[in-house]
Specification:
heterodimer, A: mainly alpha, Protocatechuate 4,5-dioxygenase, Chain A, globular, B: alpha/beta, Protocatechuate 4,5-dioxygenase, Chain B, eight-stranded mixed sheet, three-stranded mixed sheet, 23% strand
């Protein structure tokens, strides 16, 4: 027999908690709806011929999809924080930086505001501590 | 009768696959990370499982924003390595066990786990990196694979408790399969990592190691960890660890750890790996 979760969580409390983490956009359904075409555009870059067309004229390629101007600008600028704000998800956006031949380590580092070498050095030294970064409301 | 003989958990970071594919595992940055899998490669060569039920998540590969199944089981005869944006990984096709997969799908649905059935999909690094870590670079993978894809991308993902219970249901399904098969169940992903935003690079070695401890000592605690704790303590992508609980649920109440490895960093991520055997 399966054991039911004894403490079913209220969906509104659950969603509110997801917004309480500093420097983090949890990929909620609200973000997924907002970012639908941004993310679907990213999926098209899994085909080599599309990657070539995108690289040849990024703006023209982006204009083929019903994305908002802010979403297109985030992609053109490779501003991944802005892309997250526009509903992008990192695994979809990875198709863009893989097309650029950029690794996860390099692309993720750009979102932290740290120079690439500094970010890599932090990871080698054990990564970023969660201390003080667990909650916006009551940092601990 | 088919039986689950072992559980294996491991991270499935794409950089690990790229490092293997480019022959760079002995470089100073990677050496220690890969050393922790040598024991398991030798052990797997001796174990010779017939089938691995491989729990992983699809990273916007087979499933885009059009279809978001919470639990999807691969019932195909074979799967190709996906082109995730830099061309497919040069690994053999993954050969399915369609008979066993369909049996698990039917059994689990009767057991009130309504799995989505997938007859065609490509598999990404989430599935192929663990195969490379445990089996190296063979011409063909040494066993069949039943892919079990879990949504941990769009919130809410399934709870840890639900994942654990699914593992129990999969074990019941395997036990009722008439063919004599040596089956392993693997849980992949994790451990602590955050791949997005200014908080990216978060690692929590103390939390991760307590999780590894309690896979053996107190799995009942692990199944009650809420999503928000994974997010706060282990980064936005640490939630992948709920997939380890499907593996753990498939092994029964008591397990023994045969091997354990933890290393920081691989790319942005803490690498965790454990090999478990059912029984105290």
């Amino acid at each position: 027999m399966t054991i039911e979760n004894p403490k079913r969580q209220d969906i509104h409390e659950y969603l509110a908690e997801l917004e309480d983490i500093p420097g983090t956009r949890v990929f909620t359904t609200a973000r997924a709806r907002k970012g639908y075409w941004l993310n679907q555009f990213c999926m098209t870059l899994m085909k080599p011929e599309n990657r070539e067309r995108f690289k040849t004229d990024e703006r023209a390629y982006l204009d083929e999809w019903p994305m908002t101007e802010a979403q297109k600008q985030a992609v053109l600028n490779r501003d991944y924080n802005a892309a997250l704000d526009e509903g992008g998800n990192i695994y979809f956006l990875a198709k863009v930086f893989f097309t650029d031949n950029i690794s996860f380590l390099q692309a993720v580092g750009t979102m932290t505001g740290m120079p690439a070498e500094e970010y890599q050095a932090m990871m080698i030294a054990g990564g970023r501590s969660p201390v003080g970064l667990r909650s916006k409301k009551e940092p601990y | 009768m088919a039986r689950i003989t072992a559980g294996v958990a491991s991270s499935h970071i794409p950089a690990l696959g790229a490092t293997i594919d480019h022959g760079k595992t002995q470089e100073p940055y990677w050496k220690e990370c890969f050393a922790g899998f040598a024991w398991t490669r030798a052990w797997e060569a001796a174990q010779r499982p017939d089938v691995v039920i491989l729990v992983y998540n699809d990273h916007a590969t087979a499933f885009d924003m059009d279809f978001i199944p919470t639990f999807a089981i691969g019932c195909a005869e074979r799967y190709k390595s996906a082109d995730e944006g830099w061309g497919p990984r040069p690994v053999p096709d993954v050969i399915g066990d369609a008979d066993l997969a369909w049996h698990i799908a039917q059994s689990c649905i009767l057991d009130e786990f309504d799995l989505t059935i997938v007859n065609r999909m490509d598999v990404d690094h989430g599935l192929t990196v663990p195969l490379s870590l445990m089996f190296g670079q063979p011409e063909a993978w040494p066993c069949k694979v039943v892919p079990l894809a879990v949504n941990v991308v769009t919130y809410p993902p399934p709870s840890g408790n639900r994942c654990y219970a699914l593992g129990e249901a999969i074990a019941r399904a395997v036990q009722s399969y008439p063919q004599d098969l040596n089956v392993q169940i693997w849980g992949t992903g994790g451990m602590s990592h955050q791949l997005q935003g200014p908080r990216a690079g978060l690692i929590n070695a103390a939390w991760d190691n307590r999780f590894l401890d309690d896979l053996v000592k107190d799995p009942q605690r692990l199944r009650q960890i809420p999503h928000i704790e994974y997010l706060r303590e282990t980064g936005s992508e640490g939630i992948e660890m709920v997939m380890w609980l499907i593996m753990r649920g498939g092994l029964g109440p008591d397990v023994r750890a045969l091997h354990r490895h933890y290393h920081v960093p691989a790319s942005n991520t803490a690498v965790g790996h454990i090999v478990l055997e059912p029984g105290g």
